[in-house]
Design goal:
- By secondary structure, the chain is mainly α.
- Helices cover about 70% and strands about 0% of the residues.
Length: about 280
């Protein structure tokens, strides 16, 4: 085997990193510069460290009539956590029932769940809003995350993981007297722990980046997520405090980055185990 470094692969990888990193660096640098300079296109690649106070200002006070950024970050974090945990909880139980229980129309139930993958979010958005209005969950924190905790994709992924569990292990647990809940707790969840962690990272980022549903269901400014807050900060071009917008964008990047970094080992393990 040739042990020489593949310079072409390294070059492509370096270019890819630059394409992703340069816009982020421009946002970081722009957050510390004067808005008028940004409007004129005089954006410097070197951050002005003397202007770092903009981060404290938007974090505590907000801008352009928005809530403080710490409040919007808290709303987004809570929403993302509930969506990730709720999707995993419901998907694990539904996949567990489909794989390990024998009941009439079991396959039909699974395929009905699977068919929902064919429906884009835009098709379901009005019926979902109507249901939430019927339950009185419009303009509530609960209404932000409850409709988003069902996931056909996660159910399909967990079904694939559970079907890989050997029948001999299932029989051994049954002979040992393990009931359904004990089998789920002691066998199924530990076996699929890495997959759950990997899916949690993906679903957290998915929940954090939600825009359309929070925009529709929450007109109360106190329920603004960080994504909605950034959009509201961008008013008329001549009146937009671009340094504050960019500083808020940088702060919005931090929680997903922290989650990904902290769970990187489990995320990689979950992806590689899913290929076995």
């Amino acid at each position: 085997m040739n042990d020489r470094p593949d310079y072409l692969a390294h070059l492509v990888l370096t270019l890819g990193v630059m394409l992703f990193a340069l816009p982020v660096w421009l946002v970081i640098a722009g957050s510390t510069q004067d808005s008028d300079a940004i409007m004129r296109g005089d954006l410097s690649l070197v951050p002005h460290l003397a202007n770092l106070s903009v981060y404290l200002r938007v974090l505590v006070h907000g801008t352009m009539g928005t809530m403080p950024v710490w409040h919007m970050l808290l709303i987004s974090f809570g929403m993302a956590m509930f969506i990730a945990v709720g999707k995993i909880f419901i998907s694990v139980l539904s996949a567990y029932a489909v794989v390990f229980f024998r009941f009439p129309f079991r396959r039909t139930a699974f395929w009905l769940i699977f068919v929902t993958l064919m429906l884009p979010v835009e098709v379901r958005i009005i019926p979902t809003y109507s249901v939430m209005a019927g339950f009185g969950l419009i303009n509530t924190f609960t209404g932000l995350w409850v409709p988003l905790i069902a996931s056909a994709t996660a159910t399909l992924l967990f079904r694939q993981v559970f079907t890989a569990i050997p029948d001999e292990l299932v029989e051994a647990a049954r002979i040992d007297g393990a009931g359904p809940l004990r089998f789920l707790r002691d066998i199924v969840l530990p076996v699929s722990g890495a997959n759950i962690a990997a899916l949690f990272v993906i679903l957290f980022v998915y929940g954090w980046n939600q825009y359309l549903w929070p925009l529709l269901v929450a007109a109360d400014p106190s329920l603004d997520t960080i994504v909605i807050g950034i959009v509201k900060m961008v008013g008329e071009e001549s009146q937009t405090d671009w340094s504050a917008v960019m500083a808020t964008t940088v702060l919005a990047l931090l929680p997903p980055i922290v989650v990904v970094v902290l769970m990187q080992r489990w995320f990689v393990a979950g992806l590689t185990e899913g290929e076995k």
